[in-house]
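WARN  no MSA supplied for this record, continuing single-sequence
INFO  ligand: histidyl-adenosine monophosphate
INFO  echoing inputs
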Amino acid sequence: MATTLQSIRGMNDLLPSETPLWQALEAEARALLAAYGYEEIRLPLVEQTAVFARSIGEHTDIVEKEMYTFTDRNGDSLSLRPEGTAGCVRAILEHGLLRGQTQRLGYLGPMFRHERPQKGRYRQFHQLGVEVFGMPGPDIDAELILMTARLWRRLGLDGLTLQINSLGGNAARAKYRAELVRHFSAHEQALDADSRRRLTANPLRILDSKNPAMADLIAAAPAFADFLDADSAAHFEMLQSLLKDAGVPYEVNPRLVRGLDYYGRTVFEWVSRDLGAQSAVCAGGRYDGLVEQFGGPPTPATGFALGLERLIALWRAQGRAAAASAPEVYLMPVEPECVGAVLRLAEQLRDALPGLSIVSHCGGGSLKSQFKRADRVGARLAVMVGGEELRSGKVTVKDLRGGGGQQTLTPAALIDLLKQSGRP
Ligand code: HAM
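INFO  complex generated
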């Protein structure tokens, strides 16, 4: 017996009942990019593994255990993209988009991480991301935050908190790193297995540990603020003053380190208390060294990505329902001979009324069953095309929502009626 095929765990189908909400969110996302002058970039879903490994970091969770990596038929190691920043840097260098120019770019699309699926965490998920190149100051960091704050307002979301931190320049981070290794090495027996592994590879990530047994040790760790270099400190202060000026409340979270290695200076996260454990809706920060690491010229860069599944969950939790997209007109052949006339009339209506949703009944059946179908899809008008009507050049139109009135009209009169009803 054939086994039933199922979708891959953590990779979701988006059914017609859900897609209207997604479409609405995607439209808001695109409008947001346009409102701030960001241009769209579309990148492949698959890249050479090195694109991600070298940028996100060999010792990060993403690269160590979450990438979908495979060898293709040429023997090359490829990976499904776990995020958008690395591919974006690869692309702008490959196509020379940086020569003497700044760039404000945005993208929307699926990302893949082999994480343990749970509410708000999936193996295929979607991000709206933006990446900005060539702007070194806190003004653009502030713009990114204002942009996201605007999106929350547009969507009517509240209860989102902004956390910010500065990870400083390279030298300061190296000094801090050494200090952290000293602190945690002195208490090595108190570290869990993950943290012991990170001790040499990626000690900053120990600060991110959620293990309650390590909370005291982490709390006692040196604070990065004491190591912050003067330039980064000025940058961070300016960012805070711009946020205050713009009226965006924030919290400085000195423990915010982020799970990707390319960050330096500003990092930020928007978190929501309405999402349970997976509370980060949006995250980003500066990665001034990454373009150079990819072989490009020294180029300041900053960006963020927000998780659309989490945003949809919030939008739903805060009362937004998917608006059903019901057709305006449902055309029915009264007799089988009228099928051709129905298809013709449907095309004529679509020519005259672009944007209107017109559905022709297909698949046969009695008039009664056709009316049932029209009701089920929520159509506004039923249009019956029968032999009698064809001879007289008219069709019978029944209002399915407003009391069921019926009239006999020529196609031209039907078009006028639909135009007058103020639909597109
Ligand atoms: P990230 O923090 O790894 O950053 O991901 C950004 C957002 O994507 C998260 O805050 C979350 O909303 C969503 N997300 C991540 N993983 C999952 C998952 N498994 N399931 C559902 N949603 C998820 C980045 O990806 C960076 N590239 C952001 C960036 C752009 N920084 C600078 N530019």
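The longest helix spans residues 138-155.
INFO  checksum written, moving to next record
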